[in-house]
Design brief:
Number of helices of chain A: 9
Strand content of chain A: under 5%
CATH topology of the largest domain in chain A: Tetracycline Repressor, domain 2
Oligomer: homodimer
Order of helices and strands of chain A: HHHHHHHHH
CATH class of the largest domain in chain A: Mainly Alpha
Number of strands of chain A: 0
Radius of gyration of chain A: 19 Å
Shape of chain A: elongated
Largest interface: A-B, 43 and 43 residues
Structural class of chain A: mainly alpha
Chain lengths: ~180, ~180
DNA sequence: GTCTATAGCAGGATAGAC
DNA sequence: GTCTATCCTGCTATAGAC
């Protein structure tokens, strides 16, 4: 009986985050355990299965994203805050592409973003409301989110090719904030 | 020696399309061969490997998408043509979610959409140019594409939840065509 | 709580007979 | 050109010893 346990829920979660911030290694029970100096089977004492673990990682990643956006946009005038929030969203996706993908991975309805999603949602609602003058304009938030998410997706799947996106990001963001 | 060959490149391609238009069955060499009444190993006479096959499918799917958009938008006044093109893009993604996903799957640089992508690109360039009055406004095309692609992605990953997207599609499309 | 060992599954791909 | 047979890899998850 090795007394101080070699790991814990938190340590596993942290290791999974680290693994997914790397470039290549897939998130499998084996590779994850290896980074902790463990055998894969040991992880099952802490998480029931791979999916449960993934949900925890996704939740934590969503928290990170929200924290980044909040920190960058708080205390700025409305229009600027919204622009900075958009840039920060993009930056997170660049820095942590696999965490970003995990956040947006389809999940069974029960686990559909319990609280974290709502927080980010309310933050954006406030930012947009301050710019357009319409509070609680959910359609505007969705439209903006679509644009950002699509930009990330097309970029990461290499659709922009050699010519790159040009100034589409600024143009689109500007057009949306003006047009909504 | 069964003389008339049981299959061909074209038949395999068609079967793969059909398979991916269904809901569940994954595109594996085994399942694909099964729909043709063949063994998996037989497919390798016609396609070098799975990836080569997938590229062919993706190309064909892109052709279908372009054909849909062209048919729906041609002969309409500019503003309406653009709106209809957007709707058709969304409709294709709804009807053929797995083909849509395949089109946007990251591929090694060599195979990056040889000709089909360009055609769709030029079509959209024309549509947008007719609305905004600026020909060859690539950034505008990219921005619109981001919005559409993002909408599809968020919808299919269930991010809109129970409340749904509201009228975000129309709002966003309108805001973009106006603001660009 | 961790270990070894193993069951079980799924998929890609090849060898060689016909 | 298709078949059977087989190999290989990589993964999830469990059983039971310690």
């Amino acid at each position: 009986m090795p007394y101080p346990a070699k790991t814990s829920r938190e340590a596993i979660l942290a290791a999974a985050l680290t693994l997914l911030e790397g470039q290549d290694a897939p998130l499998t029970m084996r590779t994850l355990a290896a980074t902790l100096g463990l055998q894969a089977s040991s992880l099952y004492r802490h998480y029931a299965d791979r999916e449960t673990l993934e949900e925890a990682v996704a939740e934590e990643a969503a928290r990170m994203l929200m924290s980044d956006i909040t920190a960058a946009s708080s205390g700025r005038p409305p229009h600027e805050a919204l622009r900075v929030a958009g840039q920060q969203y993009l930056l997170f996706a660049h820095r942590h592409p696999r965490l970003y993908a995990l956040i947006h991975q389809p999940r069974p309805p029960a686990a559909a973003t319990p609280g974290t999603g709502k927080d980010l949602w309310n933050l954006l609602l406030g930012l947009i409301g301050a710019v357009t003058g319409r509070p609680d304009d959910t359609a505007a938030v969705v439209a903006l989110w679509c644009f950002l998410h699509g930009y990330v997706g097309l970029e990461s799947s290499g659709q922009f090719g050699l010519s790159g996106p040009g100034d589409a990001f600024e143009r689109g963001l500007e057009a949306l904030t003006r047009g909504l």
